[in-house]
Amino acid sequence: MGVFLQFALLPGCPEAAARAAVEKAARNPQFSIDLDRCRYVASYAGTQVLLTGELGFADLAEELSQFTQNPVMLLYLCNGDFWGYDFFGGMEEDHFCTLPDYFGPISPEEKARLAGNPAALVDWFPSQEQAVLSRYLLHWSDHEVIDLEEEGYACSSDRFPYGDCWQATDFAARLGFPWPFDQVMEAAGISLPPPLPTLGEILEQGIPPISQKAVEFLERSPLLRLPQALTSEYQLALLAEPEVAELGLKGKNPREAAESVGGCCWPVKFPERDPLCQRLSIAAAFCDFWLSGAGWGWLDKATYGPVYGAYEKPADMQLLRARAALTDFTKRHRAQRDLKRLMELDPANRAVYQAEMNHWRESAWH
Question: Is the pLDDT of residue 300 over 60?
């Protein structure tokens, strides 16, 4: 049995008014609301209500709005597979569902009705820009699973990615209502992941990657058993460099840090424009590696530097080892070039590099 859950956001509404509205709605036989198990949290933004009972969808959202004379967004998680919301604010209403065709084919008009309209929300909530809210309003059924995995998270500080019904709580947080009901969920046997640690905490406390697959990769890769740039020592030294320290990466979680680095880097075809971006690339690679649970190919975007060119030959062996280990098959020629450079710089470990070179050559024939 999947998760069935609904919670209401009432911007600018006092808790007492929200309680009174829920109690009135509970008298309506159309709805099934367990008043003893409902929970209320008031904040500067208004009141948030965890409503226990059967999902009420648009009818319940509209009734709560009428009783409070206040805008109401009712968010729902359905069967653990998708999420959506119904919003009523005076004459304005808006509806969204991540999988509008979950129960079968629907008309184009109904799909459009369930597409979400951030312009209808920004005047009612202490929210961010419409463009930020729009990142969450995707119909998952319009995207291949791989596309959702590549997209990852709507915003870098989110707890839940596309494809996870708990993304609804991240969306609510963007509207000014951070999720306050973890204890209630744990009491019901529903465990939510804790917030991500900061990059500084990960490095200073030696917190292992989220993915066991990444841990196993570190252990079995011959290149990564040598001193290399994914170690805490290397990363801490990098973050302590004055130009890097100014970015405040240690205080960000890995997704936020990788996003910050991306905003500092020039395109790969112009690496000589900013040598700092070559140094930052390995910080982004570390963040992606720590977070990853899939293959290593997509890490390639963060590991392009240092590069080869007329102006420079790379000499950072630790970085070259990490990059050669993380490079995927489509960039195998770069990995081979890195391995040749490592043989020049570190002849004592030539056998390790030659074995990796042979691996790439054998892979090219299969």
Answer: no
Q: Which helix (H) or strand (E) holds 352?
A: helix 350-363
Exposure class string for 218-239: b at 16+ Cβ within 10 A, else e: beebebbebebbbbeebbeebb
In Å, what is the CA distance from 128 to each residue of 32, 123, 147, 170?
A: 34, 10, 25, 13
| Mean of pLDDT values over 138-165 | 77
Residue type at 229? A
**pLDDT at residue 296, rounded to an integer:** 44
3-20 pLDDT, tens digit per residue, is: 889 999 999 999 999 999
Whether the full predicted model's pTM is greater than 0.90, yes or no, is no
Residue 76 lies in a domain: yes
CB distance 75 to 172 below 8 Å: yes
Residue type, 280: L
Per the structure block, which two tokens stand in for 355?
């074995």
Q: Note down the domain range covering 145.
A: 5-187
Q: Would you say the C-alpha torsion 27, 187, 83, 119 has a positive or negative sign? A: positive
Does residue 111 form part of some domain? yes
Residue at token pair 């890995």: 254
- Name the H helices within 142-241: 145-151, 167-174, 182-187, 199-205, 212-220, 232-240
Do 183 and 203 fall into the same domain? no
